[in-house]
Design brief:
The protein has about 120 residues and is mainly α. Helix content is about 85%, strand content about 0%.
């Protein structure tokens, strides 16, 4: 796989992270404003910053994004089992899993791939 293909995968992860961040922040207008909603919006702004970093070249951003979305996915899995089904929660959980997988794949390819 060429370097260009890993760039596409990284941009896909950045796009998913950006959409997830926007949907986190959009909950300010869709849900009742309380402490949990404000923390969700704050997490969304953090995701937007990570999406900006993923559009660059740093491997550090790949590591931070993987750790952050894995932690977020773990929290959302706990919320999913204790609450009624919520489409936003399901979207965020699936986006977190896909972004983590994409970031780990790009990290693996940059470390072990033969770059021609």
């Amino acid at each position: 796989m060429a370097v260009y293909a890993t760039r596409k995968i990284r941009n896909t992860a950045a796009l998913l992270m950006m959409l997830s961040g926007i949907s986190h922040v959009a909950q300010l207008w869709l849900r009742e404003t309380n402490a949990a909603t404000l923390l969700t919006a704050l997490a969304g702004m953090y995701y937007l910053l990570l999406a900006l970093g993923l559009s660059g070249q740093s491997r550090f951003t790949l590591w931070i994004s993987t750790i952050s979305v894995t932690a977020g996915g773990t929290v959302r899995t706990g919320q999913l089992s204790t609450s009624a089904p919520d489409p936003a929660l399901s979207w965020h959980l699936s986006a977190d899993l896909v972004v983590a997988a994409l970031c780990l794949y790009v990290l693996y390819r940059t470390r072990y791939a033969d770059m021609d």
